[in-house]
Amino acid sequence: MPAPFRLAALGLSLSLAALALPAHADFPDKPVRIVVPYSAGGGTDIVARRLAERLTPRLKQPVVVDNKPGANGIIGTDFVAKSAPDGHTVVLVVNTHLLNPILYKKMPYDTFTDLVGVTMVAKSPLVFVTQSEFPATNAVDFAKHVKAKPDKYSYGSSENMTRLVGAMYNKYQHLDMVNVAYKGGSPLMTDVIGGVTTVGVTSVLTAKPFITSGKLRPLAVTGAQRTAALPGVPTMIESGMKDFEVYTSYSLYAPAKTPKAALERLQKEVHDIVMAPDMKEILAEQAATPVAQPVDQFNAEVKQDFAFWQRLAREVNLQAE
């Protein structure tokens, strides 16, 4: 082959090789932003800030937390869905993320085509609590009291996830408790302590101070196993409610079309962080345990979780607004 043609062929092969390289092989090449679509100071915000502190030296780029609260997480999540799909902007959400497309007829983004999962950082069970003077010490005894006077009792929730979990308990125990909706865990706990609402469904983090002080009595937690944060409290499964396993999750998502290499790099770093003893201890304070499964596994589980919530919403006749 004449020299000019050899040079041309070499140039073409180098160009093709360059095209074959990952678009973001050097990820990250600028600061990374973790958007928290809820107010500062909550459980999600705490997890995000602990992650950011530990990701910064690992990624060799600043990792910052940006709170964009509003509309059950929709405002902040929409911001991420419309961000550049390069791995530098992600969102940390709880289960409400999967409930929003069930409960809202119109949303500014598509939960499943505009976003892709990175990993579930951690998960935490919920707890059912009642007034400490209530004459029941577990979820089964509580159900017996409700059945004896079916028009007297109610369950409180602070958002749609806990509302659905309370409805799930109603269904398992063949009860007809009325739901009372609250705008936060704090006013819910106040009314349960005062006997205004009979039972509250909330996070262990929210309820534990009142349990420790003796103002509330825990009836059951919703995890598959007991939580170290409340070791004496049985699970719903232990109480005879088969398959009653529900968690609050803290999960990372990125814009759709984010390169797989960037997703996998983030997942690997998050995994190593949350499995370290110091981070396990921080999560344990929120009754949370680390997960950080691989990208493909997480996205498969997201579909299963969405089907679960969709089925439950249908069973309890929760309509989209």
From TrEMBL:
One Pfam family linked to the record: TctC
InterPro entries named in the record: BUG (IPR005064), Bug_dom1 (IPR042100)
Signal peptide start-end: 1-25
Gene3D superfamilies listed in its UniProt record: Bordetella uptake gene, domain 1 (3.40.190.150), Periplasmic binding protein-like II (3.40.190.10)
Keywords carried by this UniProt record: Receptor, Signal
Top-level taxonomic group: Bacteria
Similarity comment text for this entry: Belongs to the UPF0065 (bug) family.
Name of the protein in question: Tripartite-type tricarboxylate transporter receptor subunit TctC
Source organism per UniProt: Cupriavidus agavae
